[in-house]
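Hey, quick one: can you model this chain's 3D structure?
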Amino acid sequence: MRINSILNRKGDDVATVAPERTVADALGLLADHGIGALVVSTDGRTVEGILSERDIVRALAAHGAATVDHPVHQLMTDTVVTCTGEDTVDSLMATMTDQRVRHVPVVEDGVLSGIISIGDVVKHRVGELESETRHLKDYITTGR
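Sure thing. Here's the predicted structure for all 144 residues.
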């Protein structure tokens, strides 16, 4: 199964934040959207970094409450793991595990086209397992 199959179901909306915005602004966006990470992008099309709740918590622990006044680019991860819509879900699952990332922007020809979270991958995998179980039960009970 390809990443595009997940995006077709969940949509391609991506919450972004400009690198010069404050961490307080980013926290507001995270809360408003009910998400765990923002793609950092000046134009909403290119990926300059990613800012996760985890990044913010680490900065708060290290620098205290003043962290919320810092610009996003000071906290963001600037080496971002990305994928394409043609990548397989299995390969993305392996990448997320190996790289220990929970949010992966989808980039096509250098342009941001979606984002996949670990929750999206788990939901997809659970759906696959439920379908397999249903098929096996049908086969066992009907022989077809």
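One thing worth noting: The mean pLDDT is 93.
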